[in-house]
Design brief:
This is ABC-2 type transport system ATP-binding protein. Pfam families: ABC_tran. Helices cover 36% and strands 31% of the residues. It is α/β, with parallel strands linked by helices and 321 residues long. It has 2 domains: 243 residues, Rossmann fold (3-Layer(aba) Sandwich); 73 residues, 2-Layer Sandwich (Alpha-Beta Plaits). Helix 6 packs parallel to helix 7.
Length: 321
């Protein structure tokens, strides 16, 4: 459904020395520095995939999304949506694209929500029957019809996000870009957004690219993860496989009846506080059951639990690499 080849975006940043002398020099001779916002990205997405596209602030996520959706023109490279090059056939391709930017709404501030939908219906030339059917589907997921008579300016942030999601899906696009849609949302609104993504992917087989700093979204929605930093691809693969590769260990937490904690040859005693000890072990080398069996021969065990590497720790490691 999506093919990205050698995608790059460069910006020229004017260099200026400090003070009045620097300003005068800049008038005489202007020097520029090239900033590589996105640098030579390659990846492909299949129909119906939900992909997390993440990275730290300034990594180039939004720039990439804007190029993929036709808002920005790449410095080099190509983006194919459904086999069509978006830079050469923009009008045809954008008919199959929906975009939601968490920090910018496409709803008309001065209209009722329903009037914004009607406006988009005419822009995309959507048949009345298709429009009504799509609105019914959106209402079953988000309960949007109770908001259609409300002016956009009077809607809460969560309600506006719901409106933007419906607006992006009115023309039944094959691809949906969600650029940090959960910014500022409360728990219930985030739940509604995640439900929407799951249902629309299930019902319409929509390919969804999600950028977010909310790692709960990644864990709940995405099987595949693409990580970029400084515009460069860092990781691309199955989420569980990335976790296993970056953090191929588990932590066994053992509570003893007294404060002594024995060592074990196949794991590392990483923490010992009072009668609680934490052992880190490699998942491919041994199992928690084997370690517990060995430790129980040396000491009486009161309780045990296992800690997996948290996705926030995984992402920190990936960003740092």
């Amino acid at each position: 459904m999506i093919k990205v080849e050698n995608l790059s975006k460069d910006y020229l940043l004017k260099k200026k020395e400090p003070g009045l002398s620097g300003a005068l020099k800049g008038l005489i001779k202007t020097e520029y520095k090239t900033i590589h916002a996105v640098d030579n990205l390659f990846f492909e997405l299949g129909e119906g995939e939900i992909v997390g596209f993440i990275g730290p602030n300034g990594a180039g996520k939004s720039t990439t999304i804007k190029m993929m959706s036709g808002i920005l023109t790449p410095t080099s490279g190509s983006v194919y949506i459904g086999g069509e090059d978006i830079t050469k056939h923009r009008k045809e391709v954008v008919k199959n694209i929906g975009v939601v930017f968490g920090q910018r709404s496409q709803l008309n501030w001065d209209l009722r929500l329903g009037e914004s939908f009607e406006l988009l219906k005419h822009i995309y030339r959507i048949d009345r029957a298709d429009y009504d059917n799509t609105l019914d589907v959106m209402d079953s997921i988000l309960g949007i019809k109770e908001l259609v008579d409300k002016p956009v300016r009077q809607m809460s942030l969560g309600q506006r996000v719901k409106g933007d999601l419906v607006a992006a899906m009115l023309h039944s696009p094959k691809v949906l870009f969600l650029d940090e849609p959960t910014i500022g949302l409360d728990v219930s609104s985030k739940f509604a957004l995640r439900t929407f993504i799951k249902e629309i992917n299930k019902i319409k087989k929509t390919t969804i690219i999600l950028t977010t700093h909310d790692l709960g979204d990644i864990q709940e929605l995405c099987e595949r993860l693409i990580i970029i930093n400084h515009g460069v691809m860092m990781e691309d693969g199955n989420l569980s496989q990335i976790i296993d590769r970056i953090a191929p260990y588990k932590t066994l937490v053992v509570e003893y009846y007294d404060e002594e904690a024995p060592e074990h040859e196949r794991c590392e005693l990483v923490e010992h506080t009072d009668n609680i000890a934490k052992y880190k072990f490699m998942k491919k080398e041994t199992t928690a059951a084997e370690i517990i069996a060995d430790l129980s021969k040396q000491k009486n065990i009161k309780d045990v639990s296992i800690e997996e590497a948290g996705i926030d720790d995984i992402i920190k490691i990936a960003y740092g690499s």
